[in-house]
């Protein structure tokens, strides 16, 4: 079974599950009984690994739904103190 799409001028897109290769050129709309012509669209084929698909989906989503940034990315780290070469001052508290 395959999912086919038909376009009704009044009700929009209608989906129908029919045997592969058995979809007619038009279908009667179940809402208004007008003829709905068949749409040709790409099949829903998943390619690549799941990580690649997630990256592609996030990239596509960012075009229309950008994420709101409230802080700079990355983790804030306090500045590291270099150890003193003088052993007398090595254990003093940091300013």
TrEMBL record:
InterPro entries assigned to the protein according to its UniProt record, in alphabetical order: Regulatory_FmdB_Zinc_ribbon
Superkingdom, natural source: Bacteria
Boundaries of every Putative regulatory protein FmdB zinc ribbon domain copy: 1-41
Region (Disordered) location: 71-95
Protein name listed in UniProt: Putative regulatory protein FmdB zinc ribbon domain-containing protein
Species: Phycicoccus duodecadis
Source organism phylogeny: Bacteria, Bacillati, Actinomycetota, Actinomycetes, Micrococcales
